UniProtKB/TrEMBL annotation:
Localization of this protein: Cell membrane; Membrane
Organism: Mycetocola lacteus
GO CC field: plasma membrane; proton-transporting ATP synthase complex
Name of protein: ATP synthase subunit a
UniProt membrane topology term: Multi-pass membrane protein
Similarity comment text for this entry: Belongs to the ATPase A chain family.
GO molecular function, one term: proton-transporting ATP synthase activity, rotational mechanism
Length: 246
C-alpha cells in the first residue's frame, strides 16, 4: 500500500530507485522481451504467440488509429499510439501481479509524462497541419460572433490547452490508486478475519476473499480499459488537431 516506498538503490542521486521504480523497470523489460520473442521470427502464417502480438497491434492500428485518423494519419502516428497503449497496459497490469502488487501508473510521474507526450503530439499535429492557423482556429472557432469570443476564447484556452493534459493524468492515476486501495482493503480484511479474529469472523473472511478475487479480475479489465481510453483520447486529440478546419 506504500506509494512512496524507501529508496533501496542509488539513494541520494537523481537515479534513486524504490519499489515502484523497480516495478516500472520490470514492466518495461517484460514488454520489450514479449515483443522481441513475438516478432523475432515473423511468419506469413503466424503461430499462436505471433497471432497474439498481431491482435494487440491491430487493436491499436485499426480500432483506434484508422477508425479515427484514417489510414494516412494513422500510419504517421501509429508508433506513438502503440507505445502509449502497451506501456500503459503493462504498467497498469503490475497492480495485480503477485509480489509486485502495485501499478506503475499509481504514482503521478508516469501518467504525467504520458499525458505530456500526448499533449505535445496533439500540438505538433496541429502545427504541422496548419502552421499559421492552428492556435487561431483553436481559440477563435469559426462562425462565432466577435463579441462572444470574450467568453468563448478563455473557455477554449482552458479546455483545450490546460484541462486535457490534467484530465489525462488524473484519470489514469486515480483509477489505479483506487483499485490498489480496494484490493489492499479486501485482502487485509481477509487476513484479519481469518487469522486474527475469532468466533465466526473467519466466515466473513471467506466472503472478503471472494470479493478480493472478483475485484482482481475487475482490475485486469480496468487496466486494459484505461490503456485503451488513454490511447483513444490521444488519437481523438490528434484527429481534432488535423481536422480540415485547422
Amino acid at each position: 500500500m506504500e506509494f512512496f516506498p524507501e529508496v533501496f538503490l542509488f539513494d541520494g542521486t537523481p537515479f534513486a530507485i524504490n519499489r515502484i521504480m523497480m516495478v516500472r523497470f520490470i514492466a518495461v523489460a517484460a514488454l520489450l522481451i514479449l515483443f522481441w520473442i513475438g516478432t523475432r521470427r515473423m511468419r506469413v502464417v503466424p503461430g499462436r504467440f505471433q497471432s497474439l502480438i498481431e491482435m494487440g497491434l491491430d487493436l491499436v492500428r485499426v480500432n483506434i488509429g484508422e477508425d479515427l485518423l484514417g489510414k494516412k494519419d494513422a500510419k504517421r502516428f501509429l508508433p506513438i499510439l502503440t507505445t502509449i497503449f502497451f506501456m500503459v497496459l503493462f504498467l497498469n497490469i503490475t497492480g495485480v501481479i503477485p509480489f509486485l502488487n502495485i501499478a506503475g501508473t499509481s504514482v503521478i510521474g508516469v501518467p504525467l509524462v504520458l499525458a505530456l507526450v500526448s499533449y505535445i503530439t496533439f500540438i505538433y499535429a496541429g502545427i504541422k497541419k496548419s502552421p499559421k492557423k492552428f492556435f487561431k482556429n483553436s481559440l477563435f472557432p469559426a462562425g462565432v460572433p466577435w463579441p462572444v469570443y470574450i467568453i468563448v476564447t478563455p473557455i477554449e484556452l482552458v479546455s483545450t490547452f490546460v484541462i486535457r493534459p490534467v484530465t489525462l493524468t488524473l484519470r489514469l492515476m486515480m483509477n489505479m490508486v483506487v483499485g490498489h486501495l480496494l484490493l489492499v482493503l479486501f485482502f487485509a480484511a481477509t487476513q484479519f478475519f481469518i487469522f486474527a479474529a475469532g468466533g465466526l469472523w473467519p466466515l466473513l473472511g471467506i466472503g472478503s476473499l471472494a470479493f478480493g478475487f472478483a475485484f482482481t479480475l475487475f482490475e485486469i479489465l480496468v487496466a486494459v480499459l484505461q490503456a485503451y481510453v488513454f490511447t483513444l483520447l490521444t488519437a481523438v486529440y490528434i484527429q481534432l488537431a488535423v481536422a480540415d478546419e485547422h
